[in-house]
Design a protein that fits this description.
396 residues, alpha+beta, Phage tail protein beta-alpha-beta fold, Jelly Rolls, 3 domains, 18-stranded mixed beta sheet, four-stranded antiparallel beta sheet, 10 helices, 26 strands, globular
Length: 396
């Protein structure tokens, strides 16, 4: 039997439990004893408890020290939000409540990471300081091949099977075979709010993030394999030492033989980045600057200048798993990524003081924009309000 008035069926249920959150946040002998006793009485829940602990500890909260008074304030703040959410959802299935548990938990932990100029500090925002976002009209993914425009479902897989044929498999595993124009460059357009992936004719896998355009041939011919990118992709290139692979991305030429890496090169970003997961690549700019890249390194291009540094690659490829991971990133950059992911345009005014706040942590991107924005409110100590298609972020 579980404790009276407590019903745990999964790790998500523990992430919404007050006693569990307090235990992982404060870690007292009393709370340790309570949970040891709980597991002794409920051994069938041991795996779920460990799963919840792993999710909590993955944020590495214990590496940060805050006074207990500040931790308690954060703790109470999140409990109020969880309680409010439960009341609003009372008529829905309890399992649906658990689906956003991780979002609330990450919001709680990320509050402890909020920094200004690299040091923990209180968030102070003038009364007139506000960020405004607006959801944009929904658009479809489409593939242009010759004179034909083909609509593609969200998160569908597009596989080139040879002889100009392509197999499109949607999220329900429904398959449709199409024919592409031969000897043509095809264009795959993924609007904001959508994502997809494609297998090219040589077997190379490409994941396309929101707001990305990819130009690729129906079949690779000649002594090189070349594609063009505007936006963000993660690519796993099939090794072929005789036919190098070249990714052209907003003034960069990325030369590889077989490797996996992430490229972010949006028109509206002044920085373009290449992050290498494995293998080796070299990058050339239009200004003939050149740099080699090894695993766990990032190349950043501004103008024609290239800089290189070691990085944690998971921060740059986590979007492929529905997670935003960042290290001391300004709120403006986080909102830009959220905006692309959910098709929302936020005020880009650099003078807004909220943009000066920097955060580190992980943000799990659920299907519910409101859940994610609630976490952002917790992170920045602000009030989030949505009115139809408009989002307001103001001082709490």
């Amino acid at each position: 039997m579980t404790d009276k008035n407590q019903f745990f069926e999964s790790a998500q249920d523990f992430l919404l439990d007050e006693k569990f959150i307090r235990w992982r946040l404060f870690d007292t002998e009393e709370s340790n004893e309570y949970w040891r006793d709980f597991l002794a009485r409920n051994p069938h829940l041991r795996a779920d408890v460990q799963n919840a602990i792993s999710r909590f500890d993955a944020i590495k909260i214990n590496q940060h020290t805050l006074p207990d008074a500040e931790k308690m304030e954060v703790y109470q703040n999140v409990l109020v939000k969880i309680d409010r959410y439960k009341r609003n959802k009372r008529r829905e299935l309890s399992r649906q409540i658990g689906s956003v548990a991780a979002v609330f938990l990450i919001g709680l932990l990320m509050v402890l990471y909020v920094t200004r100029d690299g040091e923990p500090d209180a968030v102070e925002v003038s009364a007139t300081d506000a960020i405004v976002g607006e959801t944009l009209p929904d658009e479809e993914i489409y593939l242009l091949s010759g004179d034909e425009k083909i609509s593609i479902a969200h998160k569908a897989h597009i596989g080139l099977t040879g002889e100009g044929k392509v197999l499109v498999t949607d999220s329900s595993d429904t398959r449709k075979e199409l024919r592409l124009a031969t000897a043509e460059i095809n264009r795959l357009v993924v609007p904001y709010g959508k994502r997809t992936n494609v297998t090219l004719s040589d077997g190379t896998e490409v994941w396309l993030n929101s707001g990305t355009r990819l130009d690729f041939p129906t079949e690779f011919v000649g002594d090189t394999r070349e594609i063009h990118v505007n936006g963000e992709i993660f690519i796993d290139v099939v090794h072929n030492p005789d036919i190098p692979f070249i990714v052209h991305a907003q003034g960069m030429g990325i030369h590889v033989q077989g490797t996996s890496f992430n490229v972010s090169a949006y028109n509206d970003d002044h920085k373009k980045t290449v992050v290498l997961v494995n293998g080796k690549v070299h990058v050339e700019t239009e200004g003939k600057e050149r740099a080699e890249l090894l695993p766990n390194e990032k190349i950043e291009m501004m103008g024609n200048e290239i800089t290189k540094e070691p990085v944690d690659v998971s921060e740059y490829i986590s979007w492929t798993k529905g997670i935003l991971q960042f290290d001391e990133a300004p709120v403006s950059e986080i909102l830009k990524k959220i905006g692309r992911y959910y098709n929302v345009q936020f005020d880009g005014n650099p003078g807004i003081e909220l943009n000066e706040i920097s955060c580190s942590g992980k943000l799990f991107l659920s299907n519910n924009l409101d859940s994610v924005m609630t976490s952002m409110s917790v992170i920045s100590s602000t009030v989030y309000k949505r009115e139809n298609n408009t989002i307001h972020i103001t001082k709490k």
